[in-house]
Amino acid sequence: MFGYRVPAPDQAMLISGGRRGLGGAPFRVVTGHGKFVLPVLRKVRFLTLSMCESEVTETCVTRQGIALNVRAVIAFKVGNDTESIVNAGQRFLSDQEQMAILTGRIFAGHLRAIIGSMTVEEIVTERQKLAAEVLDTSKTEMAKIGLIVDSLQIQSIDDGDTGYIDAMSAPHKAAIQRQAQIAQAQANQAAAEAEQDAARKQAEYARQTAVVKAQYSAEVDRAQAQAAQAGPLAHAHAQQEVLAAQTELAQRQAKLRQQQLVAEIVKPAEAEAERVRILAIADAERMKIQAEAAASHDRVALDRMLIDQLPQIVKEAAGGLSGANVNVLNGADGLGEIAAGLVAQGLTILDSVRQNLNGQPAEKSGDRPDQQRIPLELHGSGRAERETGEEK
Predict the structure, then answer these.
(1) pLDDT digits over 299-321, tens only?
(2) For position 387, what pLDDT does the model report?
(3) How far does CA 38 lie from the centroid of its chain?
(4) What CA–CA distances, in Å, run from 169 to 116, 124, 157, 223?
(5) Which residues pair with 50 in a beta bridge?
(6) Measured distance CA(260)–CA(266) in Å, rounded
(7) 41: phi then psi, degrees, rounded to nearest 5
(8) Residue 61's Cα: distance from chain center in Å?
(9) What CA–CA distance (Å, rounded) separates 145 from 100?
(10) Distance (Å, rounded) from C-alpha 286 to C-alpha 313?
(11) How does DSSP assign 94-134, residue by residue?
């Protein structure tokens, strides 16, 4: 657009011809955006904000009076704030290359002043300290002209033809050379010792190898001699071991066969015998039970028969008394005693028959508590007693 101006990212646009800028500056500062500028009535200039470099080569005299050629490089730029841009614009806008020249002169002066307060040893060994002091002393002066320093590097320090730095470093060089020579000698000695050790180890290895070979050869010869002498004995031992192994195998087979016979013949035979014995015992028990049952049945039948014959037995006993001259002394009681006696005699006979059938001896007279003594009086023979079951 006509009249609209935009600065680059690393530039500051300075507009003059209108109202004054910030702080009474003769121009306005625009950065980072565009601005409409009236042609003819306004004038626009651009100031670089990019990094610049200045190289300084200066001869400086130390506190010891020794001249040193110092070469340094300064990296600087215009500050980003409006005040720095205004200060730099007022000084370098028409000739911006003068920033590097002026910066080099400023640092050269400060470099001479600081080196003049230091010794050669300090300058050589403490370059970073030298650079920091130069930056600190020049910071205020650089800010006045709108510049800021990013870094200062001391690239070289040379004493020319005086040879002071070389002389200063000579002891260190000598020490380093001496240490290098010592290290080299130690390395050579170590190498020689290593070679000697390697040769000694090689000789020892050869000696041990010869000894081992000799021992091995002697062992082989001795083993061959023993083998030649022990041939028949070894064969006999081998035969003996074979026989022992065969014997052990036969014993194991016999034991196994014995176990098979026990399992196949003895155990079944014992089981069969046990079965027969159990069956015989069971059969005997069965027969005994049957015999006892039959005997019990016969006794029951005999008892029933005897009981059926008991009236007849009593009748026969009474018939035996029919011809006897019996006097009843106590009337009806006496007659009852006679009848009871006849019945008791029948029971005694029945009991005797049962015991004889059972294989038991007949009980003697007087053993039964139910026996009764019946008093009888026979005619013409005086008073007599008749015992149930037996006559005295």
Answers:
(1) 666 666 666 766 776 666 566 55
(2) 39
(3) 87
(4) 21, 10, 14, 77
(5) none
(6) 10
(7) -80, -25
(8) 77
(9) 12
(10) 39
(11) S-TTHHHHHHHHHHHHHHHHHHTTS-HHHHHH-HHHHHHHH
